[in-house]
Amino acid sequence: MSEETKTIESEIEEIKQPKEWQPAILGILCNWCSYAGADLAGSARLHYPESIRIVRVPCSGRVDPMFVLKGFQKGFDAVMVLGCHPGDCHYAKGNYYARRRIAMLQDLLETLGVPRERFHFEWVSASEGNRFAELMTEMTERIKKIGPFDGVTP
Amino acid sequence: MRIGVFVCWCGSNIAKTVDVAAVAEAARDMPGVVYSTDYKYMCSEPGQNMVKDAIKEHRLDRVVIASCSPRLHEPTFQRCIADGGLNAYMVEMANLREHCSWVHEKTPETTEKAIHLVRMAVAKVTKNDPLQRNEIPLGRRALVIGGGIAGIQAALDIADAGYPVVLVERTPSIGGHMAQYDKTFPTLDCAACILTPKMVDCASHPLIDIWSYSEVEEVKGFVGNFEVKIRKRAKSIIDEKCTGCGECLEKCPVKGIPSEFDENMGTRRAIYRPFPQAVPNKPVIDRLNCRKFLEDKCGVCAKICPTGAIDYAQEDEVLTEKFGGIVVATGFGLWNHSVMGEYGYGKYPDVISAIQFERIMNASGPTDGHIVRPSDGKTPKAIAFLSCVGSRDQEHGHAYCSKVCCMYNAKQALLVRDKLHDVETYVFYMDIRANGKGYEEFVQRTIEDFGANYIRGRVSKIYPDNGQMVIKGADTLLGKAVEVRVDLVVLATAMQPQNDAKDLARMLGISTDQYNWFSEAHPKLKPVEVLTDGIYLAGACQYPKDIPDTVAQASAAASKVIGLFSKKAILSEPMIANINEDTCAGCGLCVNVCPYGAIELIEVMDKEKSTRENKVMKSVANVNEGVCKGCGTCAAACRSLSANLRGFEGKQILAEIDALADMVKGRK
Fold first, then answer.
1. 3-state DSSP call for residue B468?
2. Between chains, do B511 and A90 touch, taking CB under 8 Å as contact?
């Protein structure tokens, strides 16, 4: 087999190989800390996978569990809710309400058949651009390992 | 529905990785979109004009700007479309720059993501309702927190513009760090000569109230309507009676308490004023050291006070006052180098910090300006100045440069030679950062005219030997180890935020950076504002600054307050909660969760059950528009979906998520 054929064959092989699967992740971020942290990751040109789509809300306290459920209903492979660190909420204590609400939501999700690791709630501050980018990379890798979400069966 | 989509290149910031023309093309097919285009700089004047013209030409009723973060330019485009004749809130932004082009490589997927972001914004704007801003009252009285040079300057500027100011300072006197300094670089003005007249101006200004020995305890309310709880700590002195004669200061028998003002280089008594030029020039009693309070003995000060101004029974006074605007000027603290083993854990008396040396040099300091070393009171023959002690040092938690040390090292090295001709000075430095007007020339003067030995390198060890301190370090320019013997070592310790900066930040609802410096609203364009309206920053509470920069920022903060106060009225935030009274069951859950107490239950007529004859009342939630800040916690809590947050309504957010259905399907 000549060199040339080899190359062509490997190229064909490459074409045949499906492109690596990228998960679809929904992020619901509070405006004052986490969305600003995501902005900072941008200003600092920190690269992370393009799997995330971000919805901006004023406060993690605004996150109606419905938004998360809607994400899974639409078939997102993972949903993340990010808010200000405890004590740093722009609205004093919205993130505490979020924390309680989400603790209940996690149980509900499991009951509905959404595996726990597909939902992530975390604090990211406005100065944590690094942390945001790392989190996006980690989350994408984690979801890649567990594969696509086949949805909540009605 | 006639939506216009405007895709910005942001020069090459977006266009480099995202195919903007393809995004604009794709937008054309999105539901409701009748027009889309792309342009190099959407926020520029031609860009904004393009939007305004398109609104008219294509009769647009909603606009999507696909450019940078809404945190940066949402207000810009709200004004733009308002100028174009639409309600300002009929615009949404897709964040193509911070969340897409800057964080991903140039691939088809990046452009695809950009299209998704636009799709989300289009879906959201479809559900936008026009919003209005209402007038809310504005109290024209300012609070300045911190009485250092920043607070003094801000208070004077605001008061000179004709508005009343309360200047709160927690120590017994205003003046701050600047009052402790000897001379100031690069002009060598004596700090007291330029500061004390300003302190006196503050005290005598009819519109300035100085509340010394006082602290802010709680901040409520919002721009124009802050309610601040301030604790006036008991001075044990009746201000109105005290004439400041100072008799008590001489007679108090409790001596030898380390003086905070002299940085423990000198002592004070139990009744004291920090320094003779203090403003207000009245003493306070330090209850932790006073024998009257400890043992119920003594009482000498009360006996000799000619005006009977001593009041041992005085209690703290807690006042709640209203203010329209707040200037935060709480300054900095200094890092304690006693964790550094290589410099002796702060245990060698002749290794002192630069601020302690400032007190030693100061004519009104503990040594009356005689430069002597603390251990034996002898005049030093050789002094070493070490820069970057804790600054530019990740290991000790300050990656940043403290900005002023290079200059005061040079100043102190110069002044020492000026006072004591027979002294060698050594300055160990990492880099000389002398970037201010006349600064570089000043450093050169110290080296050339005042013979300071500048050694580029760090010091690895200091230890005592035969009555002197031995300094071992490196000279990185010569590439060899150096060892010098000196009598006194002066450390330029890092500036850091006040220990309780975080507590104040929480009280004010403002954010801090990783070190706890207060965060400005924008690092370049909003350097004195914070993200909460009506609160402004001045001086080193934001980041290390020298006096000229501090004064400039203080005047800037003052001008922001004056600007605010000169408005006829302020407008309420439009993105606040509202209640659908028809569906509200009056359960009161929103009342409980509201962080601001902005919701209460009121009685309204039940439209369903009322007849013409019988009016049936029911209770429903009601939002106080002046108090609501728009967090949306109530909207997430409401069981009947009656509470909603304007601008972030459930239907808007759900529409955004729905708009991504195609993306999700494409990836299965």
1. strand
2. yes
- Comparing C-alpha atoms, which of B526, B498, B500, B502 is closest to residue B512? B502
* Chain B positions in Cβ-Cβ contact with residue A58 (cut-off 8 Å): 575, 630-632, 645, 648
Residues B378, B479, single domain; the answer is yes
What's the pLDDT tens digit per position in B354-375? 999 999 999 999 999 999 999 9
B526 domain-assigned: no
Amino acid at A61: G
Over residues B47-74, mean pLDDT: 96
Give tens-digit pLDDT for B601-640.
999 988 888 888 888 889 999 998 877 889 999 999 999 9
Predicted confidence (pLDDT) at residue A4 exceeds the cutoff of 60? no
Query: Is residue B597 included in any domain, yes or no?
Result: yes
Whether the Cβ atoms of residue B509 and residue B532 lie closer than 8 Å to each other: yes
Are B339 and B460 in a shared domain? Answer: yes
Confidence class for position A72, pLDDT limits 50, 70, 90 = very high
**Chain A nearest CA to B397, separation (Å):** 16
Alpha carbon distance B391, B393 (integer Å): 5
Per the listing, tokens 């690895």 go with B460
DSSP state of B518: B
Q: Which residue of B has its CA nearest to A53?
A: B117
The answer on B432 and B321 residing in a single domain is no
- pLDDT, one tens digit per residue, over A138-152 is 999 999 999 999 876
As a whole number, the mean pLDDT across chain B is 95
What is the percentage of chain B residues whose pLDDT exceeds 90?
Answer: 90
- Chain B residues touching A94 at Cβ < 8 A: 595, 631-633
Gap from B568 CA to chain A (nearest CA, Å): 27
What is the span of the domain harbouring residue B117? 3-131
> B46: domain CATH number?
3.40.50
Whole-number Cα distances in Å, B251 to B265, B281, B469 = 22, 17, 39
Q: Residue B342's pLDDT is what?
A: 92
Mutating which of B220, B631, B641, B665 best tests the A interface, going by the most A Cβ atoms within 10 A? B631
User: CA A109, CA A68: separation in Å to the nearest integer?
Assistant: 9
Q: Which residues of A touch B497 (CB under 8 A)?
A: none
Fold of A22-142: Rossmann fold (3.40.50)
Local structure of residue B566 (DSSP, 8 states): T
Compute the average pLDDT of residues A11-24.
Answer: 74
- Paired strand residues for B459: B473
Which residues in chain B are contacts of A23 at CB distance < 8 A? 667
**pLDDT above 70: residue A44:** yes
Tell if the CB–CB gap between B109 and A22 is shorter than 8 Å: yes
| pLDDT tops 90 at residue B452 | yes
Do B439 and B373 fall into the same domain? yes
**Which CATH number goes with the domain that contains B627?**
3.30.70.3270
Is B95 close to A88, i.e. CB distance below 8 A? no
Using a CB-CB distance cutoff of 8 angstroms, which residues of chain B are in contact with residue A53?
Answer: 113, 116-117, 120, 660, 663
A50: contact with B, CB 8 A cutoff: yes
Query: B residues 85-124 near A, CB within 8 Å?
Result: 95, 97-100, 102-105, 107, 109-110, 113, 116-117, 120
Q: Does B312 share its domain with B397? A: no
**Each residue's pLDDT tens digit, A80-126:** 999 999 878 888 789 999 999 999 999 999 998 899 999 999 999 99
- Mark which residues 7-36 of A lie under 8 Å from B by CB: 21-24, 26, 28, 31-33, 35-36
> Helix or strand or coil: residue B342?
helix
Same domain, B124 and B188: no
Peptide bond into B186 cis (omega under 30): yes
Ramachandran region of residue A92, left (φ > 0), alpha (ψ -120 to 50) or beta? left
Q: Give the domain CATH number at B450.
A: 3.50.50.60
d(CA B546, CA B404): 6
Chain A neighbors of B648, CB-CB under 8 A: 57-58, 62
Per-residue model confidence as pLDDT tens digits over B269-290? 999 999 999 999 999 999 999 9
Is the Cβ pair B664, A75 closer than 8 Å? yes
Give residue limits of the domains in chain A: 22-142
Whether B31 and B124 map to the same domain: the answer is yes
